[in-house]
Amino acid sequence: MSCPVTKEKVEFVTKQFLCNVPLNNFQWNDIFSDLILDEIAQQTLLDSTINSNLVLHLPLPTNYQKSFLKRIIDCLEECRQRYSELKETVICDEIYSAYGRLVAIAVTEDNFKHYMIKDKDKVISLKESNNLISDGTTGLRTWQAALVLSEWIFKNESLFKNETIMELGAGVGLIGLVLRECSPKKIYLTDCHQTVLNNLCKNLKINIDKYRDKYRPDAQENEDSSFPRGFPIEDRVEIICASRCLYHNVGPPDTYVLKLPWEEVNIEECHKLGVIDSIIAADIVYDEDSFVALVGALKCLTESCSVKRVIFSCTERNPETLKSFLLQMNSASFFQQELEIPVQNNFIWPTDTPVKLFSFKRSL
């Protein structure tokens, strides 16, 4: 058959599918008029999406997969009718078989997204919630500000080489896993919600060598322990903020998950942490009631941990809320510089709501 589908077209559709881009925002790049003439390309697309080992093992939402495949079937059948008298057309049987399989399986609660990292030739897989708010928190899904910041980190990865980095509001863990690709010395991933922290630990285990990490799956919110449960005696090396540590992967880079509410950041905790070169955060500037604790934590960390830079990625849902945060930062002697939003390369995000990137430095 003629008009073979380009590899780039198939890869771009696959990339969008794996990270669960809403179908009404999908960019198909006129792939169907090519697919209807290329049965091998249809099979290739199916094998890289619905039937891939990655998706079969760590599935996307079932309803999303069905909608994706139904869209492909509908568009291919439309193209077949359009070209039936002019060209040889075909729809491979495996597409219909895959759709039948999806219709028959039960909907599961464990859903994943997979982010194809073009520059690193790898995939980051994350368990995420489909809901905006789950278990009283917004931290169980990746938000567009995290995608923007992740892209910016890759563009500026030399900044983080051999550094110690702390993320505030680490959520599902995308930024932390992106940072691991930048050869830092140490990473602290912090949050305060127990469900978020447990999910964060699981996502790290999915993406990091299971034989090199230590993880306490039974961590309880008020549990008091010198070392996380499950640490073999021979591995009981000194742990940073041991009572707060839910996960520690021995590096490089050393990666810690810490339960660290902002209002509990004090000089004693900062001294345990030691030097921190960079603090980063995405989409944590949305609740004015939290600004006093957040700014206070940033003041303590910058004063006690020799922080060189603070990078925030903020979705500007309400300009007045963002303005209020910037004013409070300015009152605390933080001076900001707005950074350029990177071009979408490794990540795809909606652009209907603007995202702003800021670098902060404090005048001590």
TrEMBL record:
GO CC, alphabetical: protein-containing complex
Pfam assignment, any one: Methyltransf_16
Signal sequence bounds: none
Cited Gene3D superfamilies: Vaccinia Virus protein VP39
Domain of life, source organism: Eukaryota
UniProt xrefs under PANTHER family: HEPATOCELLULAR CARCINOMA-ASSOCIATED ANTIGEN, PROTEIN-LYSINE N-METHYLTRANSFERASE EEF2KMT
Protein's recorded name: FAM86 N-terminal domain-containing protein
